[in-house]
Design a protein that fits this description.
Structural class: alpha+beta
CATH architecture: 3-Layer(aba) Sandwich
Number of domains: 1
Helix content: 10-25%
Strand content: 35-45%
Largest sheet: 8 strands, mixed, barrel
Number of strands: 11
Shape: globular
Number of helices: 4
CATH class: Alpha Beta
CATH topology: Cytidine Deaminase, domain 2
Strand order of the largest sheet: 1-2-4-3-7-8-9-10
CATH superfamily: Cytidine Deaminase, domain 2
Bound molecules: zinc ion
Length: 171
């Protein structure tokens, strides 16, 4: 599936199967929040980001309105992915919003800014993928940090006015 941010013309691609896989991880923990890391690659001279995999935290704290992941063991996993072919790098985070809209909270924006400022994080425009989890369906919101704001990617369908919202059934 292809998304684009109109303001910057930057594109994002992600496979439907990966969206479904991440949604299933989120559904497992519903009605609590859950999340993980996004791995991928930059293509076309950095104008397109391709999300290709996820890593789940070994340790985390979560409740219905809160999620914080630990970083134990993630460095080693990231290294393995970096050395694989194709080489995948850390590009951002995903987490669920159980029964709440797929829109970033004030805390989400703050966390993404902190991430971009982190010396250990090499990317300056981290991706944030939010899953609005409902009992039987989910919706996604895709954002990236740009000049201290979270800009949204919209799908081609949404831009052409075919669909107001993309809602996926949870398998
Ligand atoms: Zn959030």
């Amino acid at each position: 599936m292809k998304f684009v941010n109109k303001e910057t013309a930057l594109e994002l691609i992600i496979d439907d199967k990966l969206i479904q896989r991440i949604a299933d991880y989120g559904a497992d923990k519903y009605p609590n929040e859950f999340g993980g890391l996004l791995l991928g690659r930059y293509l076309n001279n950095h104008t397109t980001v391709s999300i290709e995999d996820t890593l789940l935290p070994k340790k985390y704290k979560s409740s219905r309105y809160f999620f914080e992941r630990g970083s134990e063991g993630l460095r080693e996993s990231l290294e393995l992915h970096y050395n694989a072919l194709p080489s995948l790098i850390y590009i951002g985070e995903w987490h669920t919003h159980p029964d709440s809209p797929a829109r970033p909270s004030a805390l989400d924006l703050k966390s993404m800014k902190e991430l971009a400022d982190d010396k250990n994080v090499l990317i300056t425009n981290p991706i944030l993928m939010i899953f609005e989890m409902r009992k039987r369906a989910h919706d996604i919101g895709l954002y990236f940090l740009h000049k201290d704001r979270l800009l949204r990617y919209t799908s081609m369908e949404e831009q052409q006015g075919w669909k107001e919202k993309i809602v996926y059934a949870t398998s």
